[in-house]
Design a protein that fits this description.
CATH superfamily of the largest domain: Dihydrodipicolinate Reductase, domain 2
CATH topology of the largest domain: Dihydrodipicolinate Reductase, domain 2
Number of helices: 10
Largest sheet: 8 strands, mixed
Helix content: 25-40%
CATH architecture of the largest domain: 2-Layer Sandwich
Strand order of the largest sheet: 7-8-9-6-10-11-12-13
Structural class: alpha/beta
Number of domains: 2
Shape: globular
Number of strands: 13
Distance between the termini: 44 Å
Length: about 325
């Protein structure tokens, strides 16, 4: 039987990819209902998704949707609504896939984790870059010891300048602006490799010539016992293929020269450059791209069924959220 899912919140850009993967794998997953408090979002998504999802139905109230027999709930709305909706689902006894970031209030997120633990329910963050081919290879290299002791993690994840006004409109309400929106993706990877940062030093700025206070160019330094982490997020990018991750260790290094996107079309090949002690030079590995979204769904299904432990546990997600909010200056 397919895993029966509900979707609370339909706004987020990742939601479209998740819905399309559910539609592409009807033997494994089904979406039995949707809810979003914004009528415009509902209208737009209904036009896009109703041809894909059999018996497509949107419910006026989340409580109506959560009264259905479900196996899990995907929460994919606005950031400032998501934790509240995730809490509703957990209270009804359903495991939750929660869109990143986990709200903008650290205490609210802490209470959500406590509720999931109290009810023994799986709570999984949606960080789509986790399952990109080059990211999986980077983590495998680092955890195997092939790179030695990691002493520097450096990454940039910019957004295009031509979307600037949209980003101001959508993310201007949050402390940290564009950094708050995007940095969690790579903090997630950094924490997977280095653990909890001992110090966080933010450099959040508004550098566009337009007047305003929107954080459009953020940098944060993270201190670990034996390493530095440096993360850059800008809303001012005009150069193509500029999303990059670098990991340097005492026995080698790896660089993802272009990370791509978590939800837009990506090249068929995702490269990673690797240098290991004793090599003549950098070696490029061209990896076939991974189909995203489906990996998150399969991880969720396997964890809910008890077939495996989570790749990223709830304590990991707590550390990521705390590091993100500290970097934004929100705590």
């Amino acid at each position: 039987m397919p895993m029966k899912l509900a979707m609370l919140g339909m706004w987020h850009s990742h939601a479209n990819g998740l819905v399309r993967q559910v539609a592409a794998h009807p033997d494994a997953f089904s979406l039995v209902g949707f809810h979003d408090p914004n009528p415009k979002v509902v209208a737009d998504r209904t036009e896009q998704w109703s041809p894909l999802i059999p018996n497509f139905r949107v419910y006026d109230r989340p409580e109506e949707l959560l009264a259905l027999p479900l196996d899990g709930v995907v929460v994919d709305g606005q950031v400032d609504e998501n934790v509240r909706m995730a809490r509703l689902a957990l209270k009804r006894g359903f495991p939750v896939m929660l869109e990143k970031p986990a709200g903008h209030d650290l205490e609210e997120h802490r209470r959500l984790i406590e509720l999931a633990q109290h009810k023994h329910l799986h709570l999984q963050m949606i960080y789509l870059f986790r399952y990109m081919s080059a990211v999986l290879e980077m983590i495998k290299l680092a955890r195997s010891g092939a790179l030695g002791e990691i002493y520097l993690f450096r990454a940039r994840l910019p957004k295009d300048l031509d979307l600037y006004d949209h980003h101001v409109e959508v993310f201007g309400r949050y402390t940290g602006g564009i950094f708050f929106e995007m940095a969690g993706h790579i903090i997630d990877m950094m924490v997977a490799l280095l653990g909890r940062p001992e110090s966080v030093t933010p450099f959040m700025a508004h550098h566009h010539r337009k007047t305003g206070s929107f954080i459009d160019n953020g940098v944060a330094m993270f201190g670990f016992q034996h390493a530095w982490g440096m993360i850059e997020v800008s809303a001012l990018e005009v150069a193509p293929d500029a999303r990059r991750i670098e990991v340097y260790g005492t026995k080698g290094a790896c660089v993802i020269p272009h990370l791509g996107s978590g939800h837009l079309a990506n090249d068929a090949i995702q490269p990673i450059d690797v240098f290991r002690e004793g090599d003549d030079g950098w070696q490029r590995r061209d990896l076939p791209k991974a189909t995203l979204h489906i990996a998150d769904l399969r991880e969720f299904a396997a964890c809910v069924a008890g077939r495996k432990k989570p790749d990223y546990g709830i304590e990991h997600d707590r550390i990521v959220q705390e590091a993100l909010l500290r970097a934004c200056g929100a705590v």
